Amino acid sequence: MMETPQAAAVDLAVPVSAPSASPWLGFAARRLGQFLVSILVLVTASFLIIHLVPGDPVRASLGLNAPQQLVNARRAQLGLNDPLWLQYAHYLRDLFTGRLGTSIDSGLPVSQVIGQRLPATLELAGYSFLVAVLVAVPLGLFLGVVTRNGRRRGAELAATAVSVVIAAIPGFLLAVGLIYVFGVTLHWVPVAGQSGFASYLAPIASMALGPIAVLVRILRLEVIAAMRADYVRTARAKRLPDWRVYLLHVLPNALTATLTIGGLLLSAMVAGTVLVENVFAWPGLGSTIVASIVAKDYPVVQGIVLVYGIGVLLINLIVDVALALLDPRSTIRES
């Protein structure tokens, strides 16, 4: 049967859509671009801020009684007499070649200083986050199950009140309180330093209690919302055991929305190690950066700020990728 001219015109008028690229490619390109731009902003900000701090780092390192000729020679050796833009260009060049500079105070490579202190900080932040997750997830799931549909109103009010109070206490104040109660009064834990299992308890508790309070509140609400969903009613209609409904249907969907908050809390915990390490005299990057700021040790401060910043950016990137894996529609919505 021959096509009429009108039918042919209609066929020609219909546009043929080209196969669209995978939304993952656009998502990955955007996240990678944001990551690189953020690193450049971080590098520039850390360089400018530390160089705008008043004072002479060489004089602080050599002492007030050092001869001026020695100070001038040391400044020339470190390139501190160069214009600020030239120092910045040299700093970027060294970063691209993998060099973080040399400590003005100790004379050691900054990478060596960071390498010696980084493991202690990673242990403190990692263990604290692990404890927070292991405590908050089952507790939030339990509270969500027992307080659903307005049940056990007293337990709900008590849990909310306790979590609000704990979350409102600053980390350093909580650390001081733990030292006084468990270290000074009860003598259960050391008050400072990294010396065995007991020395980890108070620092980890001071860092984990706040995130636990936040995660429990959020997860409880997400569990209650998930239990009203159709897929939970379908699972119950199949007469599945309660534990399977809670663990295989309710918890995974509740954790999807909680993952973003968990990533933000982990970023805050990494940054919070600065205060906690100084309270407990923990031999990590946090105590080192404070000492370096006091000594005006520019290269060490810049290197540690860069490590902290990149760590936070990587955590946010990992959270974004994990959310995209759990909900691929998010990559399309952002396109």
Based on Cα principal axes, name the global outline. Answer: flat
Per CATH, the architecture of the largest domain is Orthogonal Bundle
DSSP strand (E) fraction?
Answer: under 5%
> What is the CATH homology-level superfamily of the largest domain?
MetI-like
- Overall pLDDT score: 80
The CATH topology label of the largest domain is MetI-like fold
End-to-end Cα distance, whole Å, is 44 Å
What is the makeup of the main sheet?
Answer: none
- Name the helix and strand elements from N-terminus to C-terminus, one letter apiece: HHHHHHHHHHHHHH
How many domains, in number, for the residues?
2
Number of helices: 14
Low-confidence stretches: 5-21
Indicate the percent of residues in helices: over 70%
Question: What's the oligomerization state?
Answer: single chain
Provide a descriptive summary of the structure in words.
This protein is mainly alpha-helical and 335 residues long. The protein has two domains: 26-104 and 297-335, no CATH class; 117-295, Orthogonal Bundle (MetI-like fold). The protein has 14 helices and no strands. The chain has helices at residues 5-13, 23-52, 57-62, 68-78, 84-96, 110-146, 153-168, 171-185, 198-226, 230-237, 242-279, 285-295, 298-326, 329-333.
Walk me through the topology.
Elements: H1 5-13, H2 23-52, H3 57-62, H4 68-78, H5 84-96, H6 110-146, H7 153-168, H8 171-185, H9 198-226, H10 230-237, H11 242-279, H12 285-295, H13 298-326, H14 329-333
Helix pairs in contact: 2-13, 6-9, 6-11, 6-13, 7-9, 8-9, 8-11, 9-11, 10-11, 11-12, 11-13, 12-13
